[in-house]
Design brief:
Helix content: 40-55%
CATH class: Alpha Beta
Largest sheet: 7 strands, parallel
Strand content: 5-15%
Number of domains: 1
CATH topology: Rossmann fold
Number of strands: 9
Strand order of the largest sheet: 6-5-4-3-7-8-9
Number of helices: 8
Order of helices and strands: EEHHEHEHEEHEHEHEH
Radius of gyration: 19 Å
CATH architecture: 3-Layer(aba) Sandwich
């Protein structure tokens, strides 16, 4: 995997184009230093320069993916191991999406992200990784063939949304839930054009959906129609069919026949 070397216990961090190892790694991430309001009183002199760095990350991300074509983002746990059911399911789903003409975008890390990049790459598709500076991750996985690493979560999340025409969400933890609910919020509030949001694994997501229906909807915290933003699937074939059908209904050209798709 990406980031492995002859010193398996030696820490490594990549910050944009910069690589740091061992004691040279700062104790906090760039995101943490930006968001932590505690600090020296000279913040007013340093924060404006951070704006330039943030702007540069947007430029890098937009520039890299501007001509990507139709794409689907795949989310899921970084902790899923190769050989597990959900890992292999992600490989198959991404392979099917790539064969249908979609680029596959992930967070570029291990687990489900690696599996989806592996499936897309193995099917001859465009395999995109949008990495993030985290203490526990060591760079993009080896199956990414178009990638960029971000320092700031909010920049990365903007790029995910801007260049995806669907979200596929496999079992995951806080990060996966964050991406899921942000997508639902943006679609429900009309901030982005509605696109398919597919939860994979009825057994995994059933409890969450029951709670939303039985408590959140019942108490009027969401509208009934907002539940229709979510579709559940259990097989790779269902995922691809749901996305293609939804795109056809809104007039989004099929990637198999769209001449503008690279």
């Amino acid at each position: 995997m990406s980031g492995q070397n002859s010193h398996p216990h030696r820490r490594i961090r990549r910050q944009g184009p910069v690589t740091l190892r061992g004691k040279q790694i700062p104790p906090t991430t760039t995101d943490q230093r930006l968001l932590d309001r505690r600090g020296p009183s000279d913040w007013v002199h340093t924060d404006p320069w951070r704006i330039m760095r943030i702007q540069a990350e947007f430029v890098e991300g937009f520039g890299l993916l501007a001509e990507l074509g139709k794409a689907v983002s795949v989310f899921g746990s970084a902790r899923s191991r190769p050989g597990s059911h959900e890992y292999e399911l992600a490989v198959e789903i991404a392979g099917g999406l790539a064969e249908a003409g979609y680029a596959v975008i992930t967070g570029g890390g291990p687990g489900i992200m690696e599996a989806a990049n592996k499936g897309a790459s193995g099917a001859g598709g465009v395999s995109v990784g949008l990495g993030i500076e985290l203490p526990m991750e060591t760079g993009l996985n080896d199956y990414v063939n178009v990638g960029v690493e971000f320092r700031y979560f909010f920049v990365r999340k903007t790029v995910f949304v801007k260049y995806s025409q669907a979200f596929v969400v496999l079992p995951g933890g806080y990060g996966t839930l964050d991406e899921l609910f942000e997508a639902l919020t943006l679609v429900a509030t009309g901030k982005i054009t509605r696109f398919p949001i597919v939860l994979v694994g009825s057994g995994y997501w059933g409890g969450l959906l029951d709670w939303i229906k039985g408590r959140v909807l019942a108490e009027g915290k969401v509208y009934p129609g907002e539940l229709d933003l979510i579709t559940v699937a259990d097989t790779p074939e269902e995922v691809t069919a749901i996305i293609k059908k939804a795109h056809a209904e809104v007039g989004l050209a099929d990637p198999d026949t769209d001449p503008a798709t690279p």
